[in-house]
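Weekly structure sync, notes
Attendees: PL, DS, HV (note-taker this week)

Item 1: Retrotransposon Copia-like N-terminal domain-containing protein
DS walked through the input record. Source organism listed as Citrus x changshan-huyou. Sequence as pasted into the shared doc:
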Amino acid sequence: MANKEKASSSISSHEDPSNPLFLHHSDHPGVILVSQPLTEDNYNTWSRAMIMALSAKNKIGFIDGSIKHPGDASAAESQHWNRCNDMVKSWLLNSISKEISLSVIYCKLASEIWADLKERLSQVNGPYIFQVEKEIHNLVQDTMSIATYYTKLKALWDELDALCSIPTCSCGSMKAVIQYQQSHKTMKFLMGLNESYSATRGQILLMDPLPNVNKSYSLVLQDERQRAVSSNQTIAPEAAALAAKMNSRERKEYKDVEKRKDGKRERPKCDHCGWVGHTVDKCYHIHGFPPDHRNRKGNSKPSANQTSSLAVDCKE
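Item 1 (cont.): predicted structure, written out as tokens:
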């Protein structure tokens, strides 16, 4: 009876979400907790992302060794622990590159995998810090937007802070150190901007006290957006004028084509001589042929009938 109650109590505790041995129905070995797999060059960022993911699932104790195996105290408890340990191992292997995962796949405990990776890949050495510092120094805006430039710069700063963290202190001197660090970041951000932002940069440098890098980024971003709005307003009238010009040209070409089509369908015909190509008011048989016309024969004056016809017209 006592064993039955103990087993029932164990099962109910494992259904409690606050229990580290609890597994949600959506948890399975194929889950990928971080977007970027572990390689030989990104252990620091990968480990931070993995710690956050495992902490959210209340499984951080399986990699730092704080959740020990229950031993032979309870078969059910041991089964639940093994199940969670294998689940965390699967999550770790899913987030490691193929080359590295082959070297830790035979580890029995998730904490062994974590310790092995940390020992091999988390070597914080001078060359790596030098590389990050050099990337920060050489980074400039160039063709990037303000948001992209700042995002890349901040990622490098965060990585450097993780490698060389400042010791915590309760005295007032730490505030001055942090303020100096912020001023240094603001200067670097402003130095990397394109010369087109020199006016905004000058205004920020004249502020006392100097704003932190986040405030400086906000001011420069507002300038960029204002320029985009002004640029759109300037281009709009030119685009409208070009469109109107093109429409006018298209209408003229359309009318010319229609005229040519109309001329092919019905050419003017003279009511006097019956020839096609002119009207009565331009008929040479009435008004006479030009001196150099090929049909001119001696006299270019109109005939008697033509003269009388003109006379009648004049009287009328």
